Amino acid sequence: MSSPVLQTTNLTKAYASPEGPIPVLSGVDMAVMPGESVSIRGESGSGKTTLLYLISALESPDHGQVMWTGESIFEKSSNWRARRRCTFMGLVFQAYYLIPELDAYENVLMAARLKGKLTAADRQRAKELLDRVGLSARMTHTPGKLSGGERQRVALARALLNQPPLVLADEPTGNLDEHTGEDVMELLLELCRDEGASLFLVTHNPDFATRTDRQLFLHGGGFEQR
Ligand SMILES: Nc1ncnc2c1ncn2[C@@H]1O[C@H](COP(=O)(O)OP(=O)(O)O)[C@@H](O)[C@H]1O
Ligand SMILES: [Mg+2]
Questions:
Q1: Looking at the 3D structure of the chain, how many domains does it have?
Q2: What CATH number is attached to the domain comprising 61?
Q3: What tens digit of pLDDT does each residue of 165-189 get?
Q4: 47 CA distance to ligand 1 middle (Å)
Q5: C-alpha to C-alpha distance for 106 and 113, rounded to whole angstroms
Q6: pLDDT tens for each residue of 103-134
Q7: Which of 71, 118, 159, 217 supports an S-S bond with 224, CB 3.0-4.6 Å?
């Protein structure tokens, strides 16, 4: 039997405020298997983004552990986490987070630059992925010249460049109209399937959620049984 790509145990997080700590997550246990897609739904403020930040180590938990293919990441250095993150996961956010000065091709290649020295294989793969997301004619366009849907397609290509075993997406269609969101979601699901990547998808859309292997609901600091 294979072991989880991603696992959390007793993951707990509160944010400080002048009125005292605001508890957000209280003891979240979860595991995502290789190639599995999991959707997370929950009301606004239920802690979905916080959970995603903890499992990507963009934030630290108060208690509990996050394991990337069995390695407990908060026992390692922040340097280790930053380096490992580049190849372990692709991140997709609602707001795209592309670099405005760089064209689509250079934005995709940025994932490889963070990992180390650019290779011919990186360049080749960036072109292939841009072609795969339907943007081969837009490689030299900067984000300002691209539509929202096109920007998110660039972000998808960037997320997959280093062949990560895991893709994390936080409301990736949140800024898109219904039709464009549908296309981007189809592409995200298809790319992860083709690449064999696990997908951890935060979405409000029940139709998108039903297309993942497993649906989770975050409520009151943990996962709710439904
Ligand atoms: N950096 C922060 N400082 C203080 N409170 C925060 C911070 N980030 C999020 N929160 C609070 O934590 C709760 C969960 O937020 P979030 O994880 O963004 O929820 P969701 O993504 O489900 O809408 C909310 O009450 C939010 O206001
Ligand atoms: Mg959120």
A1: 1
A2: 3.40.50.300
A3: 999 999 999 999 999 999 999 999 9
A4: 6
A5: 10
A6: 999 999 999 999 989 999 999 999 999 999 99
A7: 217
